[in-house]
Write a structure and sequence with these properties.
Nucleotidyltransferase, domain 5; 18% strand; 12 helices; 9 strands; ATPase (chains A, B); ATPase_BadF (chains A, B); four-stranded mixed β-sheet; Euk-type_GlcNAc_Kinase (chains A, B); ATPase_NBD (chains A, B); homodimer
């Protein structure tokens, strides 16, 4: 096999922008990863400028990791899958961005996750990370479920779980709800109790709430009734999402995101049994998308 | 009775600052109302500058209503009860304000509501408006319940009810939750359906969510199961708050706020039966407080 020198190849950058962090990987046309960078939150619903900054940071770090000069930025063909751009006004705002790449093809984080998970156009994918959602693409028809963002949607997600946990802790501190070990773990984490927790949560974002999710799943595994009730409600929602996705006959279905491994054991068994491992990370799906779009 | 000319009297201004609006009334020492003004939201948790602006606007409008010159502002002794200042950092921020009054005595909206409702120091009061909370003051001991703010607390409030309603409408639109007439009423109000609702709710505050509460109580009264479940959960919380307040033996207990008349029929009957009407509005409680403090 004769390898083309890098300078003559078309280079791609796959961008996976979620509510907590943004990952970007620079790849060759044959999907060899040259370098990866991580930036901050990139869901424009929670801050358009921050999303742009996080994408740029992740791309700059990926260039450094790849040992490529900064000027290479302008030669990259970007595929970007961002949380939040299922909302039309946010799609428009991010599309209008004077981005630093040669070209940028924008879609949802769900779409690139699906393309990556199955390494083909058709499939279904659920995300259980800071946010939650479901997506299937079958016979040229796509189905979006959830992904409505914090606090109005995203049941079963880390942010939703964290908000439920804080609500339960405050009810406990007022003696208006059952005692829960979450009061200990979250008070210790925040170094605050009772009404001082309110103070600490002032201006908190979804990514801040999502930090409590690990305490919830740990407490549920340890038998805490309040935590079990939260995790069961979240897992029941994800099971319902899975059921609707599976009905579209996607062939393959995956669940990804930081919370996924902890949620699966609480999901309906028949749906958990339908899950297949994701084949590639979403950044590969993003490059898959960029290649597809740039060759149209 | 010989009346003193206004110019020689001490004038007070009672300020009741909530999450949706701020009411201010200028009163004589013997509680004759000279004028009233209404400003915007005044819960510093949702914006310190806005709270200050709303208080100033309400005071200016009260002066105009009273037919007093603008310069009278600097002679007023203010009693201000604000939502949110149960959070220590917000109490400090608002206390440090270079306010336009001669003096300002700051306390919580709960405290002035309680003083006004019972026209004496001891009693218990619950608020069910944009936010929710409970307060009792008995034997020099005060008990605060709830009032933790949106979205981590304030169960049973208008904002909480509105958030529950939007979540239910989005579950309905994804066919992941039961059908509800809230989908029709809220979609009509917002002129949006499904994911476009997410767009409309972008950056929504507690006062925006609280606008949906009327649809929830109306739908509950009409027999909608989803709405009934929301209202029952909210009323059960307020009943539990009432039960803890009543245990402090406050003698009198009231519930005030825009949602109160619609919640009472859903509360536990024994607690609903313990409720007495509020005697005076919170602004009178604020002046009661200012007189008490300025004569110490």
């Amino acid at each position: 096999m004769v390898k083309m020198p890098l300078g003559e190849q078309t280079l791609y950058i796959g961008i996976d922008g979620g509510g907590t962090k943004c990952r970007a990987s620079i790849m060759t046309e044959d999907l060899q990863v040259l370098g990866t960078g991580v930036g901050g939150p990139a869901n424009p619903f929670h801050g358009v400028q921050q999303a742009k900054d996080s994408i740029r940071t992740a791309a700059e770090l990926a260039l450094i990791d790849a040992g490529l000069p900064p000027a290479t930025m302008g030669q990259l063909i970007a595929g970007a899958g961002l949380a939040g751009v299922n909302v039309p006004s946010l799609y428009d705002v991010m599309s209008d961005w004077q981005h630093p790449f040669k070209q940028m093809f924008l879609t949802t984080d769900l779409h690139i996750a699906c393309l990556g998970a199955h390494n083909r156009d058709e499939g279904a994918v659920m995300i259980a990370g800071t946010g939650s959602c479901g997506y299937s693409y079958v016979n040229n028809a796509s189905l979006f479920l959830g992904g409505h963002g914090f606090p109005i949607g995203d049941k079963g997600s880390g942010a939703w779980m964290g908000l439920e946990a804080i609500q339960a802790v405050l009810l406990d501190s007022d003696n208006l709800g059952p005692a829960t070990m979450l009061s200990h773990s979250i008070s210790h984490f925040l170094q605050a109790e009772g009404v001082m927790i309110v103070d600490k949560m002032f201006g908190a974002k979804s990514s801040d709430y999502a930090k409590f999710a690990i305490f919830v799943v740990d407490a549920a595994d340890a038998g805490d009734e309040v935590a079990i009730s939260i995790v069961k409600e979240g897992a029941a929602y994800m099971s319902a999402v899975a059921r609707r996705l599976w009905a579209t006959q996607p062939g393959r279905m995956s669940i990804i995101g930081g919370l996924a491994p902890r949620l699966i054991p609480w999901m309906d068994k028949d749906m958990a049994d339908n899950l297949s491992p994701a084949l590639y990370q979403p950044e590969f799906g993003a490059v898959y998308f960029a290649k597809q779009q740039s060759k149209r």
